[in-house]
């Protein structure tokens, strides 16, 4: 476990350095690093003594959320570009993309301020101190080959429980929750693969496939929600033509959910 925390801490430190250097994709890498560390802390929670991990997970979540808006806007802008057509008013599309880009620039600046701020420095210092010698329960002294399969099975069982409930008409939020659980299984399998070998690697590969499909689904959900809000704002500003274009784009992204849901269900329930 200590090795996983050290690796995760190094990954987060590197991502923060990328933000400091103004590198591409840096904010996203901070977000991913936080999520992987939170996943590892949850995976090993039954081995941890005390409640120190809860505070760390909360701090990591706050940092990830501070990076979320910028990443979401980046994805939404890319999807709008990808899914516009010659039928859409070019001027309206330019207006939409300009608005998204300006919002993205402001969100990225806010994210960078948090990532490079004192709270993140304190978090990294805490992680450095804890990662090398975490406070563990006696159970943690058992052989990895005995403990890790149980931990991975716990993550897999939660994913399967929720995935089995999904139907084509299930609300977006439920699909999003299964995506998060698939990601948790993938991270857990990656973390345990050094000990559990090919079986864990296969589990990670399956989870990555599910995560990718459900990630695309979530991107379309986020794009539809953002465009719908923009359409409501355009209508309030007495710009019905822009609102109409935004409405068409919104429905296009909502329609994109259906084949992704069908693809996931077909793949998940394949014998």
Question: Explain this structure to me?
Answer:
- The chain is mainly α and 271 residues long.
- Helices cover 82% and strands 0% of the residues.
- Helix 1 runs antiparallel to helix 2 and helix 8 packs antiparallel against helix 10.
- It starts with a helix and ends with a helix.
- The model has no long low-confidence stretch (mean pLDDT 90).
- This is CHAD domain-containing protein.
- Pfam families: CHAD.
**Which structural class do the helices and strands define?**
mainly alpha
Q: Residue share in helices?
A: over 70%
Shape: globular
- Ranges with pLDDT <50 over ≥5 residues? none
Question: Could you tell me how far the N terminus lies from the C terminus, measured between alpha carbons in angstroms?
Answer: 34 Å
Q: Kindly state the number of beta strands.
A: 0
Average pLDDT number: 90
Q: N-to-C SSE series?
A: HHHHHHHHHH
Alpha carbon gyration radius: 21 Å
Largest sheet: none
User: Count of helical segments?
Assistant: 10
What proportion of the residues form beta strands (DSSP E)? under 5%
InterPro entries: CHAD_dom, CHAD_dom_sf
Organism: Kribbella sp. HUAS MG21
Domain CHAD: 1-271
Protein name: CHAD domain-containing protein
A few lines on this structure:
Helices cover 82% and strands 0% of the residues. It is built from ten helices and no strands.
């Amino acid at each position: 476990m200590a090795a996983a925390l050290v690796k995760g801490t190094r990954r987060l430190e590197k991502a923060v350095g990328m933000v400091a250097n103004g590198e591409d994709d840096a904010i996203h890498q901070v977000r991913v690093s936080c999520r992987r560390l939170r996943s590892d802390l949850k995976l090993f929670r039954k081995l941890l003594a005390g409640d120190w991990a809860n505070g760390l997970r909360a701090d990591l979540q706050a940092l990830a959320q501070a990076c979320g808006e910028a990443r979401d806007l980046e994805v939404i802008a890319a999807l709008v570009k990808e899914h516009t057509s010659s039928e859409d008013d070019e001027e309206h599309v330019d207006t939409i993309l300009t608005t998204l880009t300006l919002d993205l620039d402001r969100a990225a600046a806010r994210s960078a301020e948090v990532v490079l701020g004192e709270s993140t420095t304190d978090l990294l210092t805490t992680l450095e101190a804890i990662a090398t010698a975490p406070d563990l329960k006696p159970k943690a002294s058992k052989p990895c080959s005995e403990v890790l399969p149980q931990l991975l099975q716990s993550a897999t069982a939660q994913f399967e429980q929720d995935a089995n409930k999904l139907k084509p008409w299930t609300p977006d939020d439920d699909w999003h929750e299964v995506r998060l659980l698939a990601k948790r299984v993938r991270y857990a399998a990656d973390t345990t693969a050094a000990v559990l070998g090919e079986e864990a690697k296969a589990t990670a590969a399956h989870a990555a496939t599910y995560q990718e499909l459900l990630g695309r689904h979530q991107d379309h959900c986020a794009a539809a929600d953002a465009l719908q809000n923009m359409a409501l704002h355009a209508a309030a500003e007495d710009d019905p033509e822009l609102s109409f274009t935004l409405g068409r784009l919104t429905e296009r992204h909502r329609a994109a959910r259906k084949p992704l849901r069908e693809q996931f269900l077909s793949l998940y329930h394949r014998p």
